[in-house]
Design a protein that fits this description.
There is one protein chain. By secondary structure, this protein is of the alpha/beta class. The chain folds into three domains: 160 residues, no CATH class; 120 residues, Rossmann fold (3-Layer(aba) Sandwich); 172 residues, P-loop containing nucleotide triphosphate hydrolases (Rossmann fold, 3-Layer(aba) Sandwich). Helix content is 37%, strand content 12%. The strands form three sheets. A six-stranded parallel beta sheet has the order 6-7-10-5-11-12, with helices on both faces.
């Protein structure tokens, strides 16, 4: 699961870490931690030793000489000092650069603080973490331990979880939904995702939902995934969690849900928010048999125009980001009711306009017959790496064929709306603000005039039409207020 963390918050928790005693050393006398002194804090004898070591060889680093005296004291043999320095001398320039002896390393804590202070807060989070790791490798080569240990990671994650629990107010829910018990929502299969967004649309001040809060089930959903999701939902009193398409879950996975929800006595959070959404057409769904008493009978779906606005606000790019999209969105659907009216040309024009201003890659992923999430992620990783390191403005073009009948809603809801995609091995592709998604489709149409794939109705859309339709539109006979593009 991807959970965005402010880099400033992460830095504060890393800097506040105090090394934890080694549990393997329980029962043994604990060594007193060496107090690392700066040059000014040392007595005259220690200073003389540091000066002597610095003069032995011109390539010896003053900081290493200072550390050697701190490690070995003033009574060791001169050869021991030299051996220690040669053993711990770095093989490449230090990440921290040259430092004044007054701010020399005094402890593992000070090394971490030095690493943090050397990194500007304006840098992206992944850049800060990468440099911290490089610093960790360099400093551990100098025998300084406990910089980013597993204990350190556990400490930081616990602090982040505590800050999340105590932060902000509860998400405001629709009046027909409440907290404190699992709720079952039976909805029509062709509006499932619109109903899910209706839950979150009520509170525009709360963050747009992510994969952490909405879990899309399928026939391959594993028990471990569900167990982790439930543990997170039952421990969060502020947000609201949904499991979608629960009618697709296997018997074993449903048993995991039943067991976990039947054993909540030890949970400290009592006003959690958790809903299970299933297709009302699937009357024999296992999840319905278990939660039949908790069915919400009066759930109401928000207006489609309201949901479109809600999704559009989440896809809107900041004003300082260059965009060629007509509405400055990070995703755009290009659709038509028939072939040969210019969808591919419109896509090419958008990519060409972007390349005139910014460098980047244009990746096309054709999707025929069935959707294979593993293939989609493999293609993205092959072209763009993990998505976090791209420095250009890339376009990702999903060309969905007309005959694709299933999986489109799940793919687009995860990738475009929840902004992440996970394959069968747990590999996550996280959509970035520097990526422009173009979905090209000639969707199947229901009898009521809407797309069979409901998520397509939620996305910012360009509709390509024929010359006859364009004439009707300009003469005022169309009645539709969509954004049309005509290619002659």
């Amino acid at each position: 699961m991807i959970h965005p963390i402010a880099s400033k918050t992460l830095r504060q928790h890393i800097a506040s870490f105090t090394p934890i005693p080694d549990p393997l050393a329980i029962g043994e006398p604990m060594d007193t931690k060496v107090a690392y002194l700066s040059y000014e804090e040392m007595d005259q004898d220690s200073r003389d030793f540091v000066d002597s070591l610095s003069e032995v060889h011109e390539d010896f680093d003053d900081d290493l000489a200072l550390q050697a005296v701190n490690e070995l004291g003033v009574h060791a043999d001169m050869n021991e000092y030299i051996d220690w320095i040669e053993k711990n001398a770095p093989t490449q320039p230090s990440l921290l650069g040259q430092t004044d002896t007054a701010t020399a390393f005094r402890s593992e804590y000070d090394v971490m603080r030095q690493l943090l202070d050397s990194e500007p807060e304006s840098n992206p989070l992944f850049v800060q973490l990468e440099k911290l790791w490089v610093g960790f490798v360099e400093q551990t080569e100098k025998s300084i331990r406990n910089l980013l240990s597993v204990q350190h990671l556990v400490y930081v994650l616990n602090k982040l979880q505590e800050s999340k629990r105590s932060y902000g107010e509860k998400r405001v829910l629709p009046e027909w939904l409440d907290r404190g018990k699992p709720r079952l929502l039976a909805v029509k299969e062709n509006v499932t995702y619109q109903m899910v967004l209706s839950i979150y649309e009520k509170d525009r001040n709360f963050a747009f939902p992510t994969r952490n809060e909405i879990f899309i089930c399928n026939g391959n959903t594993r028990s471990e995934e569900v167990r982790l999701f439930l543990n997170r939902a039952l421990a969060d009193p502020n947000s609201y969690y949904c499991m979608v398409n629960c009618h697709l879950l296997s018997y074993d996975v449903c048993r995991v849900i039943e067991t976990r929800l039947s054993n909540t006595a030890d949970d400290t959070v009592k006003d959690y928010g958790l809903a299970f959404v299933y297709a009302e057409e699937k009357r024999d769904a296992r999840i319905r048999a278990f939660l039949d008493k908790n069915v919400v009978k009066n759930c109401r779906q928000a207006n489609l125009a309201v949901l479109r606005e809600y999704v559009g606000n989440s896809l809107k790019l900041p004003k300082n980001n260059y965009s060629v999209d007509p509405g400055r969105y990070s995703a755009r659907l290009i659709r038509s009711k028939r072939a040969g009216v210019g969808k591919s040309l419109q896509k090419s024009n958008l990519c060409s306009q972007l390349r005139q201003k910014l460098k980047g890659m244009d990746v096309t992923i054709p999707i025929y017959r069935t959707i294979d999430t593993d293939h989609v992620i493999a293609r993205l990783n092959a072209k763009l790496g993990n998505g976090f390191r791209d420095v250009g403005r890339n376009t990702i073009h999903l060309d969905i064929a007309h005959e694709v009948e299933s999986g489109v809603d799940e793919l687009l809801f995860n990738l475009i709306i929840l902004r992440s995609l996970v394959n069968s091995e747990g590999v996550v592709w996280q959509a970035q603000p520097t990526q422009y998604y173009i979905i090209e489709s000639m969707p199947l149409i229901r009898k009521d005039g809407f797309c069979r794939h409901e998520v397509l109705e939620l996305l910012p859309t360009i509709t390509c039409i024929t010359p006859t339709q364009a004439l009707d539109f300009y003469q005022g006979n169309s009645g539709k207020q969509c954004f049309y593009i005509l290619f002659l």
